[in-house]
Amino acid sequence: MIQIIKNYSQLVTETDHLKGPLILGFFGDFSQGAKDTLPAFKAFCEKHPQWPAYLVDVGRTRDVHGRFGVAEVPAVLLVRQGHVEKRVVGTATVATYEHALAGGPAVPQAASASPSASATARPARSVTVYTTQSCSWCVRVKNYLRQNHIAFKEVDVGRDQRAAMDLVRRTGQQGVPQLDINGTWIVGFDKAKIDRLLGLSGAASAMN
Length: 208
Prior knowledge:
Elements (H helix, E strand, L loop, with lengths): L1 E4 L2 H8 L5 E7 L4 H16 L5 E5 L17 E6 L2 E7 L4 H9 L12 H4 L8 E5 L4 H12 L4 E5 L4 H11 L6 E4 L2 E4 L3 H8 L10
Parallel strand pairs: 1-3, 2-3, 6-7
Antiparallel strand pairs: 2-4, 4-5, 5-7, 6-8, 8-9
């Protein structure tokens, strides 16, 4: 069962005793993408009753999203003891959440909230962005993906030492941002390569 959160104090009261992960979803009626994605979020939560699930309507509850660095809806976070471990931002399917949050199978193409984008065929995609809190280029690459309605998983290597070590093992690079797109690695904000791997072109990528 998904618990509706009305303020930050309630969230603290509901979750302060939890030792394991929880799911925190941010949605809003003002966003068509959020409304379209809400059923997928609910279905994902039903498949994983072992994780307490909470829903924040950012149009009504204003004191929660900023504390978790959420600037756009829909956004779904896997949180453990107040720390965000994984997140998916943008329109998504149940399979997207399975892959990004639960480590499930590869993600099929997510539905786009943009008619112009949905009219252009794009390959199935699995996108992970490795970031740190102080990285300005990380913010740019995340904004670019959001503008193009690309759901992605974010890993903050500044807070996750194991992930940082694994990143160096995989790419030999410590710098961020780094992206893993369907198993192909990109170091830095290489827009041309991102566009090619995600099938972005023309008007879809002109928003940057």
